Amino acid sequence: MKPGYEAVIGLEVHVQLRTRSKMFCACPNLTGAPPNSHTCPVCLGLPGALPALNAEAVRMALTLGLAVEAAIQPRSTFFRKQYFYPDLPKGYQITQGPVAIVEGGHLDIPGEARVRGGEGQVRIHLERAHLEEDAGKSHHDLEGGTSHVDLNRAGVPLLEIVSAPDLRSAQEASDYLKALHRLVVALSICDGNMEEGSFRCDANVSVRRTGEAGYGTRVEVKNLNSFRFVRQALDYEMARQSALLEQGQPVQMETRGWDASLGETRGQRTKEASMDYRYFPEPDLPALMVEASEIEAARAALPELPEHRIRRWCEAYGLGLEEAQTLAQSPAFAAYFEALARLSGSGRGAAAWMLGEVSRTLNERGIGIEAFPLPPERLAELVRLVEARTLGFGTAKEVVYPALLAGEESAAAMVAREGLAQVEDQAAIRALVGQVLAANPGPVAQIKGGKESLKGFLVGQVLKAGQGRLDARLVNELLAEALAKG
Ligand code: ADP
Ligand code: MG
Ligand code: ZN
């Protein structure tokens, strides 16, 4: 972006709700089924079919609303948004009118210290979150020159979460989006799959001269199906818009699409050409009334929120923000980490194993933590041995951990049986250090001449002499000590 300008960004996020059935009919809400196998007169828009609101979707909207401390509306209504498109069988989408079930609210996101020079949290306000239905999917078959429409997705429940224009940079927008993603996954209202479109983001962005109070003309960028694309598209738009203003040219109010292969946004339609959706109240659905008892039930069922959990972990275990965020990626991963931290008695140790070896195993096997073969108790025993320095980290990682994965019952039993415990006797390590120094007069002289980098070589020699049973940190210390003396 040109110097002297700042960005104003608001995100509209469509969250596909993980209900059992669709928004207004009993068809299953499932992906991956044969095309048009989950349809009925309601979601096909056949004449005379009547919609009935899904109570589970309402409960999920309440859950989100309470998690962001929004005002839950006791009464909200549905409207018809009319437009013509082949994957919209009714010719209109049912969405919420001027009042949504969730109004206001906020999400506090960490890390904005980077951009705004402040400490800690930035509060991003929400405008509203409203319930609506998804459209079907068009498949353009290029070979045959034909298009196919799959209506399995038609009528799938969506919660559209609209932020206020409170975001000021591409990084901040992506931090907010990640926090919102963690939240809906932690609340078990969305599977969070961005590639498959379960969590979709449109970004509104304008730029203005730094310090100006009003907002500039905004552009809406569609088709942002990854966090990286959101950052790239926003950075591109900020540069494009600020360059226009710098040349004295106006920014056009328009909808643009992100072209990932070209790395640019491209104009799709301008505001003048934008559609009149002829909104009017949906006559086939009564107002959505929410009772205080329903709100209380949803509140009582709220889990610990990810941003709270992340802060707690940072404080209790001394974790870095990004480590804690990665650990909070899914409820199951977070739960495993909590168990491991508790059972091993070391939050830091547990975090290191989760982010290191455990993640590597999950990636290699292409599985989630749910399918990880070791219960936390078994891994905790290994973490404890390493934290107590009974077992060297290298041996733990290369020998004991793979054995546990392969069915070894107990890390402690294996260490005892195979004599893997670390040599703790400092005198013994000093003796090995002495031998290695004596055997390597050349490198020792070079280190004394200033070639510090050769220390690593000597440490390696000592570790090798100790057959993997030495604590590398201790060897480093004792070697430095011996070099200083000798
Ligand atoms: P629409 O219904 O046309 O999409 P909204 O008023 O609901 O318009 O706003 C949509 C999104 O645009 C919101 O997330 C809001 O924060 C954001 N927004 C509004 N004005 C601006 C602006 N000038 N610059 C950037 N974002 C904006
Ligand atoms: Mg919009
Ligand atoms: Zn249906």
Would you kindly provide a written description of the structure presented here, covering whatever features stand out?
- It contains 16 helices and 17 strands.
- By secondary structure, the protein is an alpha+beta fold.
- 37% of the residues are buried.
- The chain starts with a strand and ends with a helix.
- The chain binds adenosine-5'-diphosphate, magnesium ion (MG) and zinc ion (ZN).
- Magnesium ion is lined by residues 12, 220.
- Residues 12, 220 line the site of magnesium ion.
Give the structure's gist in a few sentences:
The chain has 486 residues and is α+β, with helices and mostly antiparallel strands. It contains 16 helices and 17 strands.
Key words describing this protein structure:
single chain, 40% helix, 16 helices, 486 residues, 17 strands, binds magnesium ion, binds adenosine-5'-diphosphate, elongated, three-stranded antiparallel β-sheet, binds zinc ion, ten-stranded mixed β-sheet, alpha+beta
Cα radius of gyration in angstroms: 29 Å
Estimated share of beta-strand residues: 15-25%
The overall pLDDT, averaged over residues, is 92
Helical stretch tally: 16
Roughly what percent helix? 40-55%
Q: Name every ligand kind in the structure.
A: adenosine-5'-diphosphate, magnesium ion, zinc ion
> What's the count of strands?
17
Task: Give the terminus-to-terminus CA distance.
Answer: 58 Å
